[in-house]
Amino acid sequence: MKPLVAIVVSAAALALAGCYSGTPSHPLSPQEMHPLKVSQTAMTLALDLPLATTALNPDDAARFDRFVDDYLSIGGGPLEMIAGEREGLGSPRIALLTERAVRRGVNAKEIRLRLASLGAGQPQPVVLSYRRYLVELPRCGNWNDTPSFNPSNANGANFGCSIQRNIGQMVANPGDLEQQRPLGTVSATRTDRVLELYKQGKASESQKSDSNKATISTVSGGN
Question: Could you read off the pLDDT of 2-25 as tens digits, one per residue?
């Protein structure tokens, strides 16, 4: 009788195994249950500048600087300048804006000039544009689960939702959630050494250099 029971149990186990596809029927991780959805939108700034402009007034300068700073912080892709179809890189106002953007930290290779007709007989403003990343946060607070009856041992509807939401609120540039930034040119070895000296309360090489310069300047000034 026992061999027969063993055969029946084995057959039942094989039947159940055959029904299991190997893929969970419900998401397991917070990233799957509450994904952070990244999208893009166009940010623009129009500056009504005469063609021969060689300097910005304080108001336009402040607006331009804020726009460029936002681009450096949260922008993606190139910084585009849209100007009149008869203009070029040699235009005084295009040269002015390009130089100012580079001084604020924009890579010159990331600046694109696009010529377009902005309306016949109308003033031709310079329009700056870039793509900004946005993140859609998950909505938490779904308490429709019944924890006391969970035969599939599935995660609750709120599992990891607050963590995902906090990450979406803290991220400086939502574009980083979609693609990592390229590696910089800073030496990791030197950075580690400077941090280690800082932890030990010792002066870094740059601080020592400044101190030496001050000493030399003092000696020279005494002669």
Answer: 555 455 445 555 554 445 444 556
User: Within 13 Å, how many C-alpha atoms sit on residue 45's CB side?
Assistant: 22
Specify the pTM.
Answer: 0.58
Biggest CA–CA distance in the chain, Å, is 112
Q: Return left, alpha or beta for 117; rule: phi > 0 is left, psi -120 to 50 is alpha, else beta.
A: beta
Domains and CATH numbers, the chain: 27-142+150-180 (3.30.1330.60)
Q: Is 49 exposed, middle or buried (0-12, 13-18, 19+ CB in 10 A)?
A: buried
Q: Among candidates 18, 45, 12, 203, which has minimal Cα distance to 128?
A: 45
Q: Which pair of tokens denotes residue 1?
A: 């009788």
For residues 70 and 66, give the distance between their C-alpha atoms in angstroms, rounded to a whole number.
6
